[in-house]
Specification:
The chain is built from eleven helices and ten strands. By secondary structure, the protein is of the alpha/beta class. The protein has a six-stranded parallel beta sheet, sandwiched between helices. It has a four-stranded parallel beta sheet with strand order 1-2-3-4, with no helix packed on it.
Length: 261
């Protein structure tokens, strides 16, 4: 902020909010803060403090992310964007499904395994870490012929992982603030079946780029209907709404709006 004051910055944009809040209150420079976590995980002190600082402008990753505390200094919602050139479209998938994410209860990897076993489909799991109680009790015991763990894949391998799959399962227990896996999969043409909570209704176009479901029973039903989804529509949806270029343009609109004030 000292550098910004001397250089007469128009705006400071911050992502790791915890370290900047106190400094933002001491500066006249407008501070834009993108909140990446679910609101529930942010301390009450932080939330109350930002209300008292008019020069702080909060950005949400989805509209649903704001719901627990809608009266903060929200300026806009800017969806995350990907470099779509790194995700190759595949019109003809192989006979398997995928699930990806951190191995924690809120991501619901164990629920995806349950529905895969019930639906008798082949499931490939990417993520980690492959250690700890959740892994040992909820994932490892169920690895067999049709349930395969492929490890923690490097970013360069994600396109192939998603693209060859019939679909992505996302049986999340938490209020997902955004969900990059949704976008990465759809960019490859791979539709997503996810629980209707958190950001999912904003990121997935129900019936067009995947299905939004209420429980595992409905998820199993929609697995049988995945051929109804046009994989080309999945790609087009991401090209229109979730590229890094679209994200940059939307941030620029926010910055200009604040600067004009």
């Amino acid at each position: 902020y000292q550098i910004g004051e001397k250089a007469k910055f128009d705006i400071v944009h911050i992502h790791p909010y915890q370290r900047c809040i106190n400094f933002a209150s001491l500066s006249k420079i407008p501070t834009v803060i993108t909140i990446h976590d679910p609101i529930e995980g942010i301390t009450k002190h932080f939330l109350e403090f930002t209300k008292k600082i008019p020069q702080i402008h909060l950005i949400s990753l989805s509209n649903s992310q704001r719901k627990p505390l809608p009266n903060l200094n929200w300026t806009a919602t800017v969806y995350n964007g990907i470099d779509i050139k790194k995700f190759k479209f595949n019109e003809k998938p192989e006979d398997y499904w995928v699930v990806a994410g951190r191995f924690v209860p809120e991501k619901g990897i164990d629920l995806a395994i349950k529905v895969a076993i019930k639906s008798k489909i082949k499931l490939k799991i990417a993520g980690g870490p492959a250690k700890g109680k959740y892994w040992e009790e909820k994932i490892k015991p169920f690895l067999k012929k049709n349930i395969e763990y492929v490890g923690m894949l490097p970013y360069s391998k994600l396109s192939e992982f998603y693209g060859k799959a019939k679909g992505l399962l996302y049986s999340h227990r938490w209020q997902e603030p955004f969900g990059l896996v949704f976008v990465e999969a759809m960019a490859c043409g791979t539709p997503v079946i996810a629980f209707k909570r958190g950001s999912a209704p904003e990121i997935i176009k129900d019936g067009k780029t995947g299905f939004l479901v209420k429980d595992l029973k409905e998820m199993a039903k929609k697995i049988k209907e995945i051929e109804k989804i046009d994989r080309k529509e999945c790609r087009k949806w991401v090209e229109k709404n979730f590229t890094k270029e679209v994200m940059a343009e939307n941030y620029e609109k926010v910055f200009l709006k604040i600067a004009k004030k």
